[in-house]
Write a structure and sequence with these properties.
The chain is an alpha+beta fold and 102 residues long. It has one domain. 21% of the residues lie in helices and 27% in strands. A 6-stranded mixed beta sheet has the order 4-3-2-1-5-6, covered by helices on one side. It starts with a strand and ends with a strand. 19% of the residues are buried.
Length: 102
């Protein structure tokens, strides 16, 4: 698990109820990552929120909604490697994330 803080809770899709949506300033634990198409971004599964068939087509939260400490960013990179054979460059990953003092 990788701890992250939500920095963007805007544009909640109507398919996702408020109680299953991230809240800006709240801490979450990322347990899985995946490449999301067609956006070609990293999507994450959180331990605190379970998206089900009721929320389809939404299955993941985009990584860019979260910020990380430097230590947790390193953990995130390892989690991404463990979960996927993603060929993201470090530059692409950093474009999708922000460092944050938690």
């Amino acid at each position: 698990m990788v701890e992250a803080i939500c920095i963007d809770d805007s544009q909640r899709p109507k398919q996702i109820p408020i109680n299953k949506w991230v809240k800006k300033g709240e801490k979450y634990n990322i347990i899985y990552t995946v490449r999301v198409l067609p956006q070609n971004e990293v999507g994450v599964i959180l331990s605190e929120i379970e998206l089900t068939d009721n929320e389809l087509p939404y299955e993941y939260f985009l990584l860019r909604r979260f910020a990380f400490t430097e230590e947790n960013l390193k953990k995130l990179i390892e989690l991404i490697k463990d979960c996927n054979d993603i060929d993201f460059s470090m530059e692409q990953l950093l474009e999708q994330t922000q460092l944050e003092e938690l």
